Amino acid sequence: MASRAGILLASVLLLSCLAETSYGVLFSTLKQSLIVTASHAEANGTLLKAGEDKISVTWGLNQSLPAGTDSAYKTVTVKLCYAPVSQVDRAWRKTVDNLVKDKTCQHKIVARPYNASMQTFEWTVERDVPTATYFVRAYAYDAAEVAVAYGQNTGAKKDSNLFEVQSITGRHVTLDIVSVCFSAFSVLALAGFFIAEKTRAKSSKRTVGN
User: Rounded to 5 degrees, what are φ and ψ at 143?
Assistant: First the structure.
């Protein structure tokens, strides 16, 4: 009888884990136990250029919480997330409570083994990051890679400590150089053509005159 009860309990726990990983954890159930800050050079205000500018991100456990709060934390992933102002009329950036369906945080900054002390990472904004307003969020995961806690550098309304990213134009420096060289070659070739034509015309006139 005891063995049957044990098997039943194990089955329930297994099904619970499968359901959690298949259907996703609800963001609203996560503990906000991580402290996250994000800083950057403000030579251009809060506007950062993709592929050029950097963000310095710091995260760690809120030390005011009871001991053992982070006992299940194994890894941390820090992500760049869309602020509400950049989600309006953009379903592909929509915030959903179910983390499997949530599209708020699509750009990974860094993933590391969990450490309770404050950790810092400097990240260059990647070239494929689109123009938008962002904030930074960190997720803590357990051994089963299920999200169990989070922290972010903004408040619940996600309207403070935000920054903007300006995407690249899509042109590459090498292409610009090739374009300039090709244009210069075209001008020279055209000039050479006119000179050759004028020389040929003069030669023709001389031949006729003779």
Answer: -65, -25
Tokens 């915030």, residue? 95
Per DSSP bridges, beta strands 147-152 and 31-32 are parallel
* Confidence at residue 18, expressed as pLDDT on a 0 to 100 scale: 42
Determine the Cα–Cα distance for residues 176 and 168; give it in Å rounded to an integer: 14
Neighbours of 114 (CB within 10 A): 18
Q: Which two tokens stand for residue 146?
A: 């299920």
Q: Which two tokens stand for residue 203?
A: 């030669």
- How much is the pTM? 0.71
DSSP symbol at 107: E
Handedness of CA 145, 146, 148, 153 (dihedral sign): positive
Q: Mean pLDDT for the chain? A: 82
Asked whether residue 80 carries a pLDDT value surpassing 70, the answer given is yes
Question: Which phi and psi (to 5°) does residue 132 adopt?
Answer: -175, 175
Pairing of the two strands 132-141 and 147-152? antiparallel
Structure tokens that stand for 183 in this block: 């244009």
Angle, alpha carbons 129-131-132 (nearest 5°): 105
Return the SS3 of 206.
Answer: helix
Across the beta sheet with 119-124, what order do the strands follow? 34-39, 54-61, 119-124
Q: For residue 130, report the phi and psi dihedrals to the nearest 5 degrees.
A: -75, 160
Helix, strand, or coil here: 145?
coil
Q: What is the DSSP letter of 85?
A: G
Alpha helices in the chain (DSSP H): 2-23, 173-209
CB 109: neighbour CB atoms within 10 A?
21
